Amino acid sequence: MTMDDGGASPDACGSIVLSRDKGGYRDVLRRYAVLVDGVQVGLIGRGQTLRLAVPAGEHRLQLKIDWCSSVPLTAVVEAGEDVCFVCAPGGEAAEAVGAVTAGMDAYITLRQAKDVPAVVSAPLSWAARFRLGAAFGFFGGALVLVGAGVWHLTGVAPGADNAVGLASLLFTLACMIAFRTGEPRKTGRRDRDG
Q1: Counting beta carbons within 10 angstroms of the beta carbon of residue 171, is it exposed (0 to 12), middle (13 to 18) or buried (19 or more)?
Q2: Element (H or E) spanning 22, and its range?
Q3: CATH 2.40.30 fits 10-113, yes or no
Q4: What CA–CA distances, in Å, run from 148 to 140, 154, 171, 183?
Q5: Which residues does residue 15 pair with via DSSP β-bridges, in sequence order?
Q6: 85-106 as b/e, with b when 16 or more CB fall inside 10 Å?
Q7: Distance separating alpha carbons of residues 97 and 103, to the nearest angstrom
Q8: Backbone phi, psi, residue 48, to 5°
Q9: Which of 17, 144, 182, 184 has the fewest Cβ atoms surrounding its Cβ within 10 A?
């Protein structure tokens, strides 16, 4: 993938090399728009690496997805040289709700690297998987609770609405408790998962 260099000679060009980590589940099926100097020059998916030929000099690199973005970084490109960057989701899937609101300008992590990194998969820790499952359970339970409320108000299934509503409420509360207790403790001890 190359960017229009405005007629610059190949000797006056360098490259921005951008790699995206394979880790985590957030945005696993989505691609980030790659912007150089405010112009979209490509898309990058999980585990991909892009090489963008650009004129030598300073360039502003930023990634976007929907209304969220990374913090823009400056890439100082020398003729014939590569400037390497790595991007990744700015947190775990369980943190996505806060990230798309208050943290929307840092939703994607972007950092400069010394060399083109080997893109490796970073599996989620047990605690992260547990919190993610609890969050999905909470939302699923809440959805069933809303459905039971609709049944109750419309009278479609008068014998089942109370039982389904109670089961949903208990399931939702259990998921909330699991989600809360699954958060890492900030005691200064090292996480056992690594």
Answers
A1: middle
A2: none
A3: no
A4: 12, 10, 13, 30
A5: 53, 82
A6: bbbbbbbbbbbbeebeeeebee
A7: 9
A8: -95, 160
A9: 184
- How far apart are the C-alpha atoms of 29 and 160, rounded to whole Å? 38
Residues in the chain: 194
Q: Give the model confidence (pLDDT) of 2-56 as tens digits.
A: 444 455 555 689 999 999 988 767 788 889 999 999 999 999 998 899 999 999 9
> d(Cα 7, Cα 172) in Å, to the nearest integer?
60
Structure tokens at 60: 């502003």
Q: How many CA atoms lie within 13 A of 178 on its CB side?
A: 20
Q: Extract the tokens encoding 56.
A: 């030598």
At 140, give phi and psi (nearest 5°).
-65, -45
Q: Which of 5, 169, 168, 150 is nearest to 77 (CA)?
A: 5
Please tell me the pTM assigned to this model: 0.56
CA angle 96, 97, 98 (to 5 degrees): 95
Per-domain boundaries in the chain:
10-113, 126-181
Structure tokens at 103: 């943290």
pLDDT one-digit tens code per residue, 163-181 = 776 777 777 777 767 666 6
The distance of Cα 54 from the centroid of its chain, to the nearest Å, equals 27
Q: Which two tokens stand for residue 183?
A: 């958060």
Q: Which residues contact 152 (CB under 8 A, 6 or more apart)?
A: 158, 161, 162, 165
